[in-house]
Structure formats: structure tokens, C-alpha cells
Amino acid sequence: MRLVTAVIKPYKLDDVRSALAEIGVQGMTVTEVKGFGRQKGHTELYRGAEYVIDFLPKMKIEIAIEAGQMDQVIETITRAARTGKIGDGKIFVTRLEEVVRVRTGETGKAAL
Question: CA 28, 80, 101: angle at the middle one, nearest 5?
Fold first, then answer.
């Protein structure tokens, strides 16, 4: 089992969710986060004063999947989230030791 964590631009969330639903991904956790990478934020003007916004709004998507789905899920997220501009995001994949469904006590693949 794997945990796929993707950090993407906020306005691409609906595209990514729809694309993942089309390939059969049934659930995900989405969190609003802030961060920066190579784009290093930007400068804005407020009431005549210039200030730097270091942390940009992003969406973090977490999906627990079977290992066999990993390549398809990564490709789907990449295709749906890509704009071709800096700041499109990152995808991280980690191994899951165990998954437990709280309601039923099911474990492993059955809990996904």
C-alpha cells in the first residue's frame, strides 16, 4: 500500500478530483496549506506599502492506494494538475505499513 501526497495549485483541485474519480479512486483527504518552492512567493501592494508574500496558497491531497495503482494515480494527478508554469506542485509517495477502518476494524487492502 502507498500514500500519495500531492501539493497542487488550488484552482486545479476540481480537475484532479474529477480525473482521479474517472480512474476509480474512491477517497482522498484535502487540506488547504501554504508553501513555496522555486517561485519564492511574490510582492503585493497594500495601501501604498509593498510587502512580500512568501507562502502561497496550495492544496494538499492525500490518497491511500494499493501499490499497483501508484503509476496510474501519479500520471493522472500530473496530467490534471499541470499548467506548464512554475509552482504546479509536487507528488510524494510513501509506503503504508497498515490501514485500519475505524468503523469495522477491517485492515489492509480491505480498509482502503
Answer: 10
